[in-house]
Structures are given as C-alpha cells and as structure tokens.
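Input structure tokens:
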C-alpha cells in the first residue's frame, strides 16, 4: 500500500472486488476509485489535526481588503485543508480572531502566521494507520456502487470508525500538547 493504486486495492479487497493495475486503466473499479479517492483522502485529512499533515506558513496579505467587518484578507496556502490555529506573531503565542471565507483568511491583524492541515498527496508520507483508515473509508464508499450492499457498507462504517480511532490515538501519542495560555488568575499572582 505504498501508492494510491495499492491503497485502492486494499479498499477493493475489503469488499471482495477485483484488483486494479492503475487508476487510469478504464475499468469500472478503477474509475470509481479515481472518482472517490481524493475526496475520501481530503475528508479524512480534515477530520483531525494530523501531525504528519500539519504545516506552518506566514500568509501573504492581499492588496484588497474585505468590504466590511475585517481590516485585511490573507491568501490561504494552495495545499490548505483546514486551519489549526492563527497567530499575529511568529512565536505562535495567543490566538487571533479570524474567519475563513472562500480562499481567504480575514482578520484585523497586519501579519498572520498559520498552522494548518495540508493536503498530503504522496501516500508514502502517510503513517500506516492513517493509510488503513483511508482504505477503510474508501471501502465503505465503494461498498454500494461495486458490491451493491448496504449491509456491507454498515459493517465497513464500523471498521472505519475503529481504524480512525486507532489512527487518532497513535497520532495523539506522538505529539506533545500545546501549552494552554495563562489565565487572568496567573497574571494577578
């Protein structure tokens, strides 16, 4: 499962379907995998702040400001899936009030440093338990169109939830929690 085709074949095996040699081979299974793979990958990336997919960037300020409500708009990175945190300093301290609107982050800050989940396209950069969760999600999505089975889809939903929990747990164990900001009581002391 070190490439997209291998990951798709893992999903197809879970539903008892025929293997594929590539996403471009033209078979029904390959076409369905090609249609569903990127959506499933991005959905799973969006579901958690995965360590392997977290990135940092200083955003570029756009020349045109929002029409109202905020003073500035910043372009999101091209590989942005979802935001983890935004800061007005490169130390990443405090938090910044912002909103995501279309392909922009809008805020009142002059500079924005963003922690975000990025799109990871190379399967070899994904941890094994993430790949297993992705294969289970893809299998669930393929169950009805290929195997014509709602019962199988329900069973695969349970398998996906188990794989997702395992992947999130492992991911959480590999990360140190971000320190919480000091409360008002600490400043008084």
């Amino acid at each position: 499962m070190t490439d997209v085709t291998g990951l798709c074949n893992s999903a197809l095996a879970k539903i008892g379907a025929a293997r594929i040699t590539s996403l471009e081979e033209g078979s029904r299974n390959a076409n369905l995998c090609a249609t569903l793979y990127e959506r499933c990958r991005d959905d799973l990336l969006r579901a958690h702040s995965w360590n392997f997919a977290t990135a940092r960037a200083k955003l570029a300020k756009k020349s045109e400001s929002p029409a109202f409500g905020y003073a500035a708009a910043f372009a999101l990175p091209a590989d942005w899936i979802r935001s983890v945190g935004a800061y007005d300093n490169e130390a990443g301290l405090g938090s910044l009030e912002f909103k995501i609107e279309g392909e922009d982050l809008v805020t009142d800050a002059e500079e924005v440093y963003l922690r975000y989940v990025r799109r990871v396209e190379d399967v070899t950069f994904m941890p094994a338990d993430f790949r297993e969760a992705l294969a289970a999600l893809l299998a669930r999505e393929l169950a009805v169109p290929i195997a014509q089975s709602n019962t199988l889809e329900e069973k695969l939903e349970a398998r996906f939830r188990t794989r997702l929990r395992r992947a999130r747990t492992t991911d959480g164990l590999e990360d140190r929690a971000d320190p919480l900001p000091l409360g008002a009581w600490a400043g008084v002391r």
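The chain has two domains: 4-48+121-173, 54-118. Residues 54-118 form one domain.
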